[in-house]
Amino acid sequence: MIASKESVETKSSDYVMPNSQRVYVEGELHPDIRVPFREISLAPTKDFSGNLEPNEPVRVYDCSGPWGDPQQAPDSAQGLAPLRAEWISGRGDVAEYEGREIKPEDNGYLTRGHEEFASNAERKNRLEHFQGTKRRPLRASAGHPVTQLWYARQGIITPEMEFIAIRENGRRAAAQASCLCGPQASRLPDPSTRRDARSPHRQDACAP
Fold first, then answer.
1. Which residue ranges in the chain fall short of pLDDT 70?
2. H/E stretch holding 85
3. How far is CA 133 from CA 75, 78, 115, 148, 179, in A?
């Protein structure tokens, strides 16, 4: 069965995913970082004797944005909040400038007349111009690139880098602290051990 548009459309963050909740992990180098995860609760496991063994919840990516947080009330008509604005401005190497005028091609139309026709069309196919927050574009102002690669080459760990590190590593540190052994331990490499083409065969980080 194909779901109708009305059955899947979500207008606010009132929608709650079953058996899960949004959780956040804060940064260490940058305490203002809050990395979202979706924590899924698991049913207990029944063993051969009939006893129930509880299972720890599993954390996965949560890419639902502000709509996945019941504490927020996002409005798609206003656009997303500029979560990285303070990180970017705090580096002091960008400046705002006047962007160019929006062209019909930006909205998928060939000419201005084509765009105006779409703006006056029936509601189903009408072009609605975005009336939300208008932000001016940014460009480098300090004579160097403003990419994460450039910062990394200078030895700078940006909030963006820590955010990604927390998201990708998940709960690996907690798993290592639980003293796993055997084949599971060999899959948890020591993050302090470099892995590259020059040392493909290294000793397992967690010895039995």
1. 1-15, 122-125, 132, 171, 174-208
2. helix 85-90
3. 11, 6, 22, 26, 50
Q: What is the pTM of this model?
A: 0.71
How far, in Å, CA of 104 to CA of 106, rounded? 5
| Secondary structure of residue 148 in the 3-state scheme | helix
Residues 161, 148: Cα–Cα separation, whole Å: 8
Is the Cβ–Cβ distance between 184 and 204 less than 8 Å? no
Closest CA to 57 of 74, 73, 44: 44
Mapping DSSP to helix (H, G, I), strand (E, B) and coil, where does residue 139 land?
A: strand
Token pair for residue 43? 């049913």
What distance in Å separates the CA atoms of residue 33 and residue 83, rounded to the nearest whole number?
A: 10
Please give the Cα distance from 108 to 110 (Å, whole number).
7
Instruction: For residues 75 and 163, give the distance between their C-alpha atoms in angstroms, rounded to a whole number.
Output: 24
Q: How far apart are CA 186 and CA 183, in angstroms?
A: 5
> What pLDDT does residue 75 have?
86
Domain ranges in the chain are 20-95+143-173, 100-135
